[in-house]
């Protein structure tokens, strides 16, 4: 896990000092070392800068930029190739000799052997740029799900600039951090989902997940393609649920084994939910069966707020797995103090203050010298885990005329949530027990089935046909409107503290297999993520395996906004810059605020969107995106 920049621009338009300045905006991503390479190539030159977080092969021999033994290819790379051992063995049999034990050298050798087709061989999270001296072209790619970020911009004088984070691009004097007004309007409408290549900065784009491009020696994009597209219409169900759960567990264990490959300590994030608990408990079983692994877990919990706290579930899992459990209780006053730095690392405003919990967990891992964290991101998008997916499943059953199954699964789902709600004083703060379509709504759908919306997405999404509602929803979530944002939050929070997050549910072998499962393996008898629950037999505590509610890392923002954050939050909501934005209704926002303060509703999500945007825009006015956090945030700016 690292950070890099790559300039491919007219010769003489940049020098080593500029590449270093851009590169060192990413020091937090790579605190263990820095490297630089300048490659002249006629009218254009390539500048490669790299910041290293040492995970595999800690020696200087594995530093980047790394050049192949014949001098024809140079790489800068951020991420991990989890199957690098298997690829190394395969390439060694083909006569390739290796000088290091790093995955970087294996990736470079894979490119030298297979060319751009190397992408189909890679199991990992990655973003990289390879300068091919022989072909005089730059090859750039990003992993299937977009776990690792990569941004790019056209330079006004010709050429291209790439970077792991946008803040590094703005260290280039020709790239100004101007606001993208179109995307800003989408954000004010609540429609900014990071589902396109455009960002909130004009002229800066993110390379889409599962995408690659080749730039020739004239600086022209010669080829641009998407190398992985899931097929949600291909359903090859196992013969039984037992077979499905056994195969799932096998693939999941293989994914975890590969993600344990590290020369630094590995730990786990533990939220108390099903997904992270499964990782922790599978690791514990592997440890008991001989895998050498010192197991630490890291959690955020709010024991003083039992309605939101996951503390009881965290304790159950920690006791079951016999892990060294570490926990933090995020503080709203600290959130105020760290808000600017949190936004600096996130780079764009965000929809929930709950990502501050991730931030605190990453810092906790650093305090306990644990560099790598396994986490459960991606399971909900992959296995239909969000409770608001259930109505799509209900309507699919209506489409298919499966009335008995519809009645049974609806009863089981709603009764499970109803029983769970009795555990909490105000369960509405935790989850919506009435998320399912009720009998009246289902009868109306039976009389007149609603159409299937085509939506804005087509690539990798099944057709808008009856019976495909759930599959369309999870396909869109995995590729477009849910997971990309969550991966941004997770990457920036971890890298702010020089930590690496690894996500076992996003192993592409596991993902491709899960995509082919029938809906009955995802939701059955009112239980979502059914195949995952069944695979946890004998592994998970029963109270976690068959819990109906879902909350994950949720901050008590509703309470904070009525107490410690009240004055600070209103200062941002009352910011004059917001009042000039389209779709900003001062009276409506004031009404939401007053209702929230009186306890007449929980509007914390709607309010936070504007709070975060105000913070981001203030940072823009103060020149922080242009000058850098520490240089631009003078004492006067802090006071403001």
Automatic annotation (TrEMBL):
<dbReference type="InterPro" id="IPR006426">
    <property type="entry name" value="Asn_synth_AEB"/>
</dbReference>
<feature type="active site" description="For GATase activity">
    <location>
        <position position="2"/>
    </location>
</feature>
<dbReference type="InterPro" id="IPR014729">
    <property type="entry name" value="Rossmann-like_a/b/a_fold"/>
</dbReference>
<comment type="similarity">
    <text>Belongs to the asparagine synthetase family.</text>
</comment>
<protein>
    <recommendedName>
        <fullName>asparagine synthase (glutamine-hydrolyzing)</fullName>
        <ecNumber>6.3.5.4</ecNumber>
    </recommendedName>
</protein>
<dbReference type="Pfam" id="PF13537">
    <property type="entry name" value="GATase_7"/>
</dbReference>
<dbReference type="GO" id="GO:0005524">
    <property type="term" value="F:ATP binding"/>
</dbReference>
<keyword id="KW-0315">Glutamine amidotransferase</keyword>
<dbReference type="GO" id="GO:0004066">
    <property type="term" value="F:asparagine synthase (glutamine-hydrolyzing) activity"/>
</dbReference>
<dbReference type="InterPro" id="IPR033738">
    <property type="entry name" value="AsnB_N"/>
</dbReference>
<dbReference type="InterPro" id="IPR001962">
    <property type="entry name" value="Asn_synthase"/>
</dbReference>
<dbReference type="InterPro" id="IPR017932">
    <property type="entry name" value="GATase_2_dom"/>
</dbReference>
<dbReference type="InterPro" id="IPR029055">
    <property type="entry name" value="Ntn_hydrolases_N"/>
</dbReference>
<feature type="domain" description="Glutamine amidotransferase type-2">
    <location>
        <begin position="2"/>
        <end position="218"/>
    </location>
</feature>
<comment type="pathway">
    <text>Amino-acid biosynthesis; L-asparagine biosynthesis; L-asparagine from L-aspartate (L-Gln route): step 1/1.</text>
</comment>
<keyword id="KW-0067">ATP-binding</keyword>
<feature type="binding site">
    <location>
        <position position="103"/>
    </location>
    <ligand>
        <name>L-glutamine</name>
    </ligand>
</feature>
<keyword id="KW-0547">Nucleotide-binding</keyword>
<dbReference type="GO" id="GO:0006529">
    <property type="term" value="P:asparagine biosynthetic process"/>
</dbReference>
<dbReference type="Pfam" id="PF00733">
    <property type="entry name" value="Asn_synthase"/>
</dbReference>
<keyword id="KW-0028">Amino-acid biosynthesis</keyword>
<keyword id="KW-0436">Ligase</keyword>
<keyword id="KW-0061">Asparagine biosynthesis</keyword>
<dbReference type="GO" id="GO:0005829">
    <property type="term" value="C:cytosol"/>
</dbReference>
<dbReference type="InterPro" id="IPR051786">
    <property type="entry name" value="ASN_synthetase/amidase"/>
</dbReference>
């Amino acid at each position: 896990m690292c950070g890099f920049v790559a300039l491919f621009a007219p010769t003489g338009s940049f020098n080593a000092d500029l590449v270093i300045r851009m590169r060192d905006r990413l020091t937090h991503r790579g605190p263990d070392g820095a490297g630089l390479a300048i490659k002249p190539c006629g009218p254009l030159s390539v500048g490669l800068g790299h910041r290293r977080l040492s995970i595999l092969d800690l020696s200087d021999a594995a530093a980047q930029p790394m050049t192949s033994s014949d001098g024809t290819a140079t790489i800068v790379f951020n991420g991990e190739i989890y199957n690098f051992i298997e690829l190394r063995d395969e390439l060694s049999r083909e006569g390739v000799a290796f000088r290091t034990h790093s995955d970087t050298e294996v990736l470079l050798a894979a490119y030298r052997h297979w060319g751009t087709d190397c992408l189909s061989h890679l199991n990992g999270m990655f973003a990289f740029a390879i300068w091919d001296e022989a072909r005089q072209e730059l090859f750039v790619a990003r992993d299937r799900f977009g776990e690792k970020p990569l941004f790019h911009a056209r330079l006004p004088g010709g050429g291209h600039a790439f970077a792991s984070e946008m803040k590094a691009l703005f260290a280039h004097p020709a790239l100004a951090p101007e606001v993208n007004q179109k995307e800003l309007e989408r954000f004010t409408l609540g429609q900014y989902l990071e589902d396109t290549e455009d960002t909130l900065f004009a002229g800066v784009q993110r390379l889409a997940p599962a995408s690659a491009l080749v730039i020739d020696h004239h600086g022209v994009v010669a080829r641009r393609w998407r190398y992985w597209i899931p097929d949600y219409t291909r359903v090859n169900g196992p013969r039984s649920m037992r077979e499905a759960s056994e195969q799932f567990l096998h693939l999941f264990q293989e994914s975890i084994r590969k993600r344990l490959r590290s020369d630094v300590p590995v730990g786990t994030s533990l939220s108390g939910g099903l997904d992270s608990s499964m990782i922790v408990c599978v690791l514990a079983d592997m440890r008991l069966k001989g895998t050498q692994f010192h197991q630490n877990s890291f959690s955020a919990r709010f024991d003083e707020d039992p309605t939101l706290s996951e503390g009881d579930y965290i304790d159950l899992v920690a006791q079951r797995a016999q892990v060294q459990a570490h926990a933090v209780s995020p503080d709203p006053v600290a959130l105020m103090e760290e808000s600017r730095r949190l936004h600096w690392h996130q780079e764009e405003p965000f929809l929930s203050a709950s990502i501050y919990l991730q931030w605190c967990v990453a810092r906790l891992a650093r305090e306990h010298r644990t560099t790598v964290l396994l986490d459960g991101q991606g399971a909900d998008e992959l296995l239909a885990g969000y409770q608001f997916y259930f109505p799509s499943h209900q309507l699919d059953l209506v489409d298919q005329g499966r009335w008995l199954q519809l009645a049974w699964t609806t009863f089981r789902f709603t009764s499970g949530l109803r029983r769970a709600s009795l555990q909490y004083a105000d369960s509405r703060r935790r989850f919506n027990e009435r998320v399912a379509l009720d009998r009246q709504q289902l009868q109306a759908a039976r009389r007149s089935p609603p159409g299937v919306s085509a939506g804005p997405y087509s690539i990798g999404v099944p057709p808008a046909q009856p019976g495909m509602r759930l599959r369309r929803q999870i396909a869109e979530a995995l590729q477009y409107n849910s997971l990309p944002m969550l991966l941004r939050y997770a990457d920036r929070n971890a890298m702010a503290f020089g930590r690496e997050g690894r996500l076992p549910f996003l192993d592409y072998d596991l993902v491709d297999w899960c995509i082919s499962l029938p809906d009955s393996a995802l939701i059955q008898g009112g239980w979502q993520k059914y195949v995952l629950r069944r695979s946890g037999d004998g592994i998970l505590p029963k109270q976690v395996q068959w819990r109906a509610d879902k909350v994950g890392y949720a901050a008590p923002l509703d309470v904070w906004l009525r107490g410690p954050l009240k004055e600070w939050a209103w200062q941002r909501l009352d910011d004059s810059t917001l009042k000039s934005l389209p779709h900003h209704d001062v009276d409506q926002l004031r009404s939401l605020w007053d209702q929230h303060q009186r306890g007449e509703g929980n509007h914390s999500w709607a309010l936070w969107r504007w709070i975060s945007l105000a913070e981001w825009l203030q940072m823009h006015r103060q020149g922080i995106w242009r000058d850098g956090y520490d240089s631009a945030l003078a004492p006067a700016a802090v006071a403001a």
